[in-house]
Amino acid sequence: MFNYTRDFDAFDLRLRLPAVISKLYKLASHNGGITYIHCTAGLGRAPAVALAYMFWILGYNLNEGHQLLQSKRPSFPKLEAIKLATADILTGLSKNCITLKWKNSSCSSVEISGLDIGWGQKIPLAYDEEKKAWFLERELPEGRYEYKYVVDGNWVCNEHEMKTKPNADGHVNNYIQVARDGTSDEEKAMRERLTGPDPDLTKEERLMIKEYLEQYTEQ
């Protein structure tokens, strides 16, 4: 079930959750509701799928479902990925173009890791001779993305772009908040509610998600 979902990658999980939950929903509907969910270690992707199924199909509040899941098996499902996937289904997935810049003409290579590709990959920036700076243009769905520059092999933050607070390991990253164009007030309020600290779904929203999953086909 998870051979096409990158491990430890919240963005990839966000995009692929609907496909996986659609398969799970259809399987569970035909085999009496019992289905074995697994991934490599059973700590990230599989718990996230189980929790999303509990949230979208079984009627659990996301935080209540998370607490129940943790009481059965301590794990690390990426809650933000589930929240964003939920909002994407109900309000649509739209992208916006962002531009990142590293101003330094003395280095020989500049790359970025993080964003939508995960920390195990890097994207090269293009050097603009006229502007004496390195640039990356990329289309990203709405959301918050952390990233870091890799300049001549050294991982560094851009002091001219927004930075996170130090995490538990003391690491600091740059981040960017991507918004969508033309969002109605109703859609904006729904996304804020679904991606907030205690998201829940109405009966009508769960019906919409179930209909979406029933009709979902692989792209």
TrEMBL record:
Presence of the UniProt keyword Hydrolase in the record: yes
PANTHER family named among the record's database cross-references: DUAL SPECIFICITY PHOSPHATASE, SUBGROUP, CATALYTIC DOMAIN (PTHR46642), PHOSPHOGLUCAN PHOSPHATASE DSP4, CHLOROPLASTIC (PTHR46642:SF3)
Protein name per UniProt: Tyrosine specific protein phosphatases domain-containing protein
GO cellular component: chloroplast
InterPro entries in the record: AMPK1_CBM, Dual-sp_phosphatase_cat-dom, Ig-like_fold, Ig_E-set, Prot-tyrosine_phosphatase-like, Starch-Glucan_Phosphatase, Tyr_Pase_dom
Molecular functions (GO terms): carbohydrate phosphatase activity; phosphoprotein phosphatase activity; starch binding
Protein origin, superkingdom: Eukaryota
Region (Disordered): 181-201
Protein species of origin: Aegilops tauschii subsp. strangulata (Goatgrass)
Single GO BP term: starch catabolic process
Keyword vocabulary terms for this entry: Hydrolase, Protein phosphatase
